[in-house]
Specification:
This protein is an all-alpha fold and 91 residues long. The chain is 71% helix and 0% strand. The protein is built from 6 helices and no strands.
C-alpha cells in the first residue's frame, strides 16, 4: 500500500474516533494524548499508527469504522503496517 493511501485511511480513522466522544475519550486515555496533541500532531506517523491500533483493537470497531467512513475493512491492517512496522494481532 502506498504511504499516501495509508495516511488517508488513518486520517479517516481519526475522524471516526473524533466523531464519538466516548471513543475519542477512550483513545486519548489509552494513549495519553491531549486534544492539543491531536491538533498539532495530526499527520505524524506515530500518532496515525496509534489511531489505527485503536481501530484494529476490536473487530466490531473495524467494521463500524469501515461502514461509517466507507473504507474497505481489509485495508485497515495494511495501512497500519505501511505507517509503522509490525502489529501483533494477538493483543
Amino acid at each position: 500500500m502506498k504511504q499516501e493511501r495509508a495516511i488517508a485511511i488513518a486520517l479517516e480513522a481519526l475522524t471516526f474516533l473524533a466523531g464519538d466522544p466516548e471513543r475519542l475519550e477512550a483513545f486519548m486515555a489509552n494513549t495519553g494524548l491531549s486534544s492539543v496533541d491531536l491538533t498539532e500532531r495530526t499527520e505524524e506517523p506515530d500518532l496515525l499508527v496509534s489511531v489505527l491500533d485503536a481501530v484494529l483493537a476490536d473487530e466490531t470497531t473495524v467494521m463500524l469504522f469501515a461502514a461509517e467512513r466507507q473504507v474497505e475493512p481489509e485495508m485497515v491492517y495494511p495501512a497500519r503496517l505501511t505507517l509503522g512496522g509490525t502489529y501483533d494481532v494477538s493483543i
